[in-house]
Amino acid sequence: MSHTPSPSRGILIEAAELRIVRLPLITPFVISTGTMTHKVIPLLTLKGEGLEGIAEAVMDPAPDYLEETIPGAMAFLRDVLLPSIIGKRFASPYELEPYLTPWRGNHMAKAVLEMAFWDMWSKSLGIPLKAALGGVRDKVDVGVSIGIASHEKTLARIDEALAQGYKRTKLKIAQGHDIKLLEAVRKQHPEIKLTVDANTDYSLADLPVLRAMDAFDLDYIEQPLAVDDIHDHAQVQSALKTAICLDESIRSASDARKALEMRAARVINIKVGRVGGFANARAIHDVSAAFGAPVWCGGMLEAGVGRAHNIHLATLANFTKPGDTSSASRYFKQDIINEPLEAVDGEMAVPTHGAGIGVTLDHDYLATVTDHVEDIKA
Ligand code: OSB
Ligand code: MG
User: Fold this and answer.
1) Rounded CA gap, 369 and 367, in Å?
2) Angle at the Cα of 128 from the Cα atoms of 314 and 306, rounded to 5 degrees
3) Model pTM above 0.85
4) What are the pocket residues of ligand 1 if the criterion is a CB atom closer than 6 Å to any ligand atom?
5) Is the pLDDT of residue 4 over 90?
6) Per-residue model confidence (pLDDT) at position 8
7) Can you name the residues that pair with 82 across neighbouring β-strands?
8) For the chain, how long is the longest CA-to-CA vector?
């Protein structure tokens, strides 16, 4: 018997590169938990058999939006996750699962590895990532997420987004930056599709304020309460007409199942980078569909690589609400990829410059915004 390697034996992951990219944001992004002036991105490249798979990780430098941090993720990827898979063959992204699930938490670190391999795998098959995932659309509806700013600045940003045709406006809110803001916005724009995102700034004691939001015809209120508080979200949801949407609280299909069963939310924001990768993102998508709950694709101010992953994900059937993947030029003067990801009339076309995620790195620019690079071997 000969032992000729065949595609059915899977793709050999030969090496990996971990890079820290630092991009200035055109406008500082303010949410209830903090302000971001630069986007710092761990960028992973998996290499093998002449293929490369790339992905951005979405954790912040410090434990801001969620608990994971870039230094922690870099150590976990470099010392544990990447050495465990380099030198092995994987016939599909599902075969990574036994190397990821034994470790607790760290969904964002797990996600970057899994997402890079989805890119590599779909490239090996010569198909767009969208096709590997089972997506059903060639373009996805998108809206904007507007950070905390003065009423005047917020109204100007809304005008700009509406002029560009974005399909939904999401306003970041926080205690004391909520009802008056909504009054000002609704006065100018009584009809637009409007949502708010509190990034966990409220508690059950704030129920009167959250109830007052029912007056503004919001499509949903995103993540009003703490990350680990599905129980109290159910209390709030039962007291409100407006749908609750969970973001930070949902990191797995079982989180989604429990939240929907408890009626803690009626909508779910899926960020593939938050939930451990595409297998989990799709499982959350499917569980939500089974409960009749629409989902939409959130974002973490990603550059082009992460943005491309998000767009492919949002082609799945139950992504029926506009996502946060607006034009990269709203965030960055220059992107790390060659193909501009720009929305037209509130729609983002799925990038298909080649198979996989369908975008390519601008290596010259990338070199100028790279803080650190390391090669990981088995
Ligand atoms: O909660 O959705 C969030 C940005 C950083 C951290 C958390 C969030 C966000 C956004 C922006 O809302 C989404 C984007 O434009 O990429
Ligand atoms: Mg959110």
Assistant:
1) 6
2) 50
3) yes
4) 31, 65, 145, 197, 199, 247, 298-301, 324
5) no
6) 59
7) none
8) 77
